[in-house]
Amino acid sequence: MKHALRRLRTVAVTLSACTLGLSLLSAPAEAYSVQPLAPQSDRAPESDQFTAEGVTTVGELRTVDGSLSYARSGRTQVIQHPGATYVKVHFSSLRLAPGEYVTVSSPDGRESYRYDRHLNRATGSDYTTDGQPGFWAMSVEGDTAVVTLHSSRASRGSAATIDRFWRGYDRTEIAQYNFSTQSVCSTDARRDVVCYQSSHPTEYARGNAVARLLISGGGMCTTWRIGNTNRMLTNKHCFSTQAAVSGSEMQFNYQCATCGGANPGAGTKVSGATLYRVSSGGSSQLDYALFSVNNFAAIQGFGTLYLATTATTTGTQMYIPGHGDGSPKRLSIFEDAQNGARCTVRNANYNTWNISYSCDTSGGNSGSPVLNSSHRVIALHHLGGCPSNQGAKAHLIYNEIASLIDNG
Question: Membrane-crossing residues (predicted)?
């Protein structure tokens, strides 16, 4: 999250197991017919690590010398970093014959992504790119990705080369690598979205349109579907170039299955497609990026949100669904205590561009929608600093992008 330039005390990042969705899976030897190779890896140069002002860093880029060959002993490769929260594998080359393919899977097979020589998203899995040769497979939750060559050929030679991977930080590392200001105002009243499924069913349902945004493998924000067509909205300070959009994943339905549980599923992951517009001015102004995704049909069932087209007012009841700290989705509905005071707009005209509120947020909430009791988006969250966490005014954003969206 981008934080206002003011003197603020720092706070520790305190997260439950579900908050980070820790899925520390290992790769037992008995899961494979042949003992797979798990090559050593090294931290990539600092110049290649993810860094962006105001964006929560959640991963580390590592280099590896890995390959798949047609020899029976070389058809499986394990990419593993103990304790990692996700692994995202890069293929520098893929040399497959017709009918052959590779898969990148979790050890238990719950996540599996398939790639053939054509990298056709219509017949295979989604992927991301970074402008360099090769492609990035979609990330796999947990600390292990099992890469497998599927071929009936018995011949010599290499079929694929793996040169890099991102591995997700654990909760301690996120605190270590990110400066956190006071954006949780007093007591953190956020809860897993499923906690509100019965008591606040509409707020719960509207949150389905909100996704975790993994930026270029190592950064984290929040994004959400806007309107009736293939359009997504997040902050400009999260990304602002076509290259960054093409290198990013949107993870829908990444949330805990039970209230306070440590059981998030992998959800549904799609890649960024086309960047349509970014706001002008700095990140303290409207701070938006409008884009689309590949495989839009896969995420249509999660619903959508609509922008308010007129200004909100001070005292308006509000709530915020999002992925603060990169955690499974949580809802900010109450200020400090469950069933206590509801979150409200503190100042509907904090400045030309922003409204303010004390509703709890944290790094990773950048790009979250701020909704009113009519479930329209009244602001796009982007600045932290209690008591004046801030969101860019939605009606001003609407005025700039109305021709590019179907706002219902």
Answer: none
Q: Of 212, 343, 206, 355, which is closest to residue 286 (Cα–Cα)?
A: 355
352 Cβ contact partners less than 8 Å away, ≥ 6 residues apart: 285
Q: d(Cα 229, Cα 285) in Å, to the nearest integer?
A: 26
The DSSP string of 213-277 is EEETTTEEEEEEEBSSSS-EEE-TTT--SHHHHHT-EEEET-SBSSTT-S-B---EEEEEEEEEE
Three-class secondary structure of residue 68 per DSSP: strand
**The domain that contains 106 carries what CATH number?**
2.60.120
Two structure tokens written together for 117: 């020589």
Q: Is the pLDDT of residue 50 over 60?
A: yes
pLDDT tens sequence across 32-41: 444 555 789 9
Tokens at 402, concatenated: 């109305």
pLDDT tens, residue by residue, 245-302: 999 999 999 999 999 988 899 999 999 999 999 999 999 999 999 999 999 999 999 9
Q: Per the structure, how many domains does the chain have?
A: 2
What is the extent of the structural domain holding 124? 41-172
Q: Mind listing the pLDDT tens digit for each residue in 219-252? A: 999 999 999 999 999 999 999 999 999 999 999 9
Q: Are residues 140 and 191 in the same domain?
A: no
Domain co-membership, 119 together with 193? no
Last residue of a domain, one of 126, 152, 172: 172
Token pair belonging to 376: 């329209």
- At 126, is the pLDDT very low, low, confident or very high (cuts 50, 70, 90)? very high
The structure's pTM equals: 0.90
Give yes or no: residues 104 and 243 share one domain.
no
Identify whether residues 130 and 113 lie together within a single domain.
yes
Structure tokens at 58: 């959640």
Cβ pair 39, 118 in contact under 8 A: no
Buried b (16+ CB within 10 A) or exposed e, 196-211: beeebeebbebbbbbb
